[in-house]
Amino acid sequence: MMYYDKDAVARAREAGLLAYLRRCEPDNLRQVSPGVYCTREHDSLRISNGKWYWFSQGFGGYSALDYLVKVRRMPFLEAMERLNGEAADVPPFFAPQKHGHKLILPSRSQSSGKVAAYLLGRGIARPVIDYCLHTGLLYESLPYHNAVFVGFDLGGRPRYAALRGTASCFKGEARGSDKRFAFCIRAPDSPALHVFEGAVDLLSYASLEGLDGRDWRQDNLLSLGGVSGKEVPPALGQFLHDGKGVRSICLRLDNDDTGRRAAEGIMEALQGPYGLCNLPPPQGKDYNDWLRMRLEEGGLNVTAENI
Predict the structure, then answer these.
(1) Number of domains present in the structure of the chain
(2) Residue 86: its pLDDT value, please?
(3) What angle do CA 244, 249, 255 make, to 5 degrees?
(4) Do 245 and 221 share a structural domain?
């Protein structure tokens, strides 16, 4: 996926529509009265005092970029190229990264009982657990019976594994894990992406969607394998590189200082090409806290067997 940095976007937003039309589409510009113009395409789109307003449609804007995207329906990157006169760059966090270690997955148990019990105990819905088990996204390891959350690349090869203890607070990653390919549930036809810090939060959100009667597989769900600092995490950069159809990103990171800083950094880095929203859990530290609160408030069994 290509991009323009925030300085290029800011420069493009400074370009007024009148100046753009005079330079690039002079035949489409018509003067209505002193200081007031319209386009020949749209007589009700009036331009004056550095602003424009399309009266027949009920909206307006300031810049030529707004006009190209909202009126001409031009894709954002194409509009940026039209205004800047240069093609977009590939952002550094989307660049392929060398990774010299082969992923070594833990041995697989013939049973998934301890993993299922662990996740049910955290309120994860049975259909969500069963889907992950049946698709190979999740399994139970030997000899420690950890929950193993597997991340795959687009070719279907396992590239990452997060490990969570089912009988302890152990957290880790399998040796050779590549954080660019963290645990996710893809919905290839959806333009929407929901982003979480960890796999259990992702599954908690899916369970909440089921609790509210919505299809939890309708959008892309991505865990990051943790966050640090304000840079775009490798897993998010890789997912956007692979998922050409993503148009909106909803950040559902933890409701703490680290999560808030990470969300701010991602919002700043990705402004422009995407619709962005920042929705930490309404209550609690993370989405698993919020799921358990919802279940308790509703008087439902925390195992969520019936969701």
Answers:
(1) 2
(2) 42
(3) 150
(4) yes
Is there a contact between 147 and 118 (Cβ–Cβ < 8 Å)? yes
pTM: 0.68
Spatial contact of 291 and 120, defined as CB atoms under 8 Å apart: no
What are the structure tokens assigned to 179, written together? 């954080």
If one counts every other C-beta atom within 10 angstroms of the C-beta of residue 230, the result is 14
User: Domain containing 222 — which CATH number?
Assistant: 3.40.1360.10
- 57 with 18, same domain: the answer is yes
Q: For 201-227, what is each residue's pLDDT tens digit? A: 999 999 999 999 999 999 999 999 988
For residues 113 and 117, what is the distance between their CA atoms, to the nearest angstrom? 6
Based on C-alpha coordinates, what's the Rg of the chain?
A: 24
CB 288 within 8 A of CB 200: yes
Sign of the C-alpha dihedral, residues 116, 288, 247, 266?
Answer: negative
147/192 same-domain check: yes
Name the domain boundary from 41, 60, 92: 92
Residue 46 lies in domain:
6-92
Identify the H or E element spanning 142: strand 138-142
**Helix 199-211 crosses helix 126-135 at what angle (to 10 degrees)?**
130
C-beta separation of 181 from 136 below 8 A? no
Which amino acid does the sequence have at 6?
A: K
